[in-house]
Structures are given as structure tokens and as C-alpha cells.
């Protein structure tokens, strides 16, 4: 679906307003996951609802990559994003989760964003001992 809108200033809400009929036409509910394209630049997000308006977040990085400025009218192409959003578990984290059924069940109940955060915490460790401590901490927390 395509529509035209203005790039809104950072305050009070930064982003692109989505007409309600476009959100309804996507068929993914009030806050659907979407793929957005502006000026050939594509990113994924979710439609937000703020103060009764449907909005797409527009970070500085995406605004720069799309080559648009605040106040500019732009054409937006939006599609329902049906690709499952999953975190790619590192092998050592997967092994630890699989060795503890309660932790695995806890991890599997997390949202995709929460799973990505768990993975990011493990993968951002610089030292092997830090990585191992983070895995142990995650397993303990996921057990409940």
C-alpha cells in the first residue's frame, strides 16, 4: 500500500503518520508489524498508536538513509511483515538452554525482542569468562 505523509519533527512525536484506512487495509490488527520503504530505503518496524494516531517511527539513521528531512512530504510504501522475527541463538547459549528444560521453556515464552536482548547480552561479552557468566545469569533468570 502507498500513501503520502509528512516527516514529523522529533517533538512530541517523530515519525510518519499512517492513515487509519491503510492500517485497516493491512489486516494485521491495530499495531501490525510492517516493512516500510521511503525513497528506496527499506526497514521493518511496527505501527505505533500515540494520542489516537497511527505512526511509524523514523529514526535519524532511517531518515538519513532515506534522504528525507523534517517537514518534507514523502511517499511511503508499507506492507504487512509476515516474516517471523526470531533471535539466532549462539551455540553455547542454545546448549545451556537445552540442558535446562525450565530455562528453555522460559526463553521460548519470551517475545522476539526479549529473546534478541538475551542473545545480545551473551554475544556482546568480550571475554569468554564474561560470556559464560552472562549465560549462567540468563539461565538462572529464565528458570523463574
UniProtKB/TrEMBL annotation:
Coiled coil residues, start to end: none
Highest taxon in the source lineage: Bacteria
Gene3D superfamilies xref list: AF2212/PG0164-like (2.40.30.100)
SUPFAM superfamilies recorded: AF2212/PG0164-like
Membrane-spanning segments: none
Pfam families with a match to the protein in the record: DUF1905 (PF08922), OmdA (PF13376)
The protein's name in its UniProt record: YdeI/OmpD-associated family protein
Species the sequence originates in: Paractinoplanes globisporus
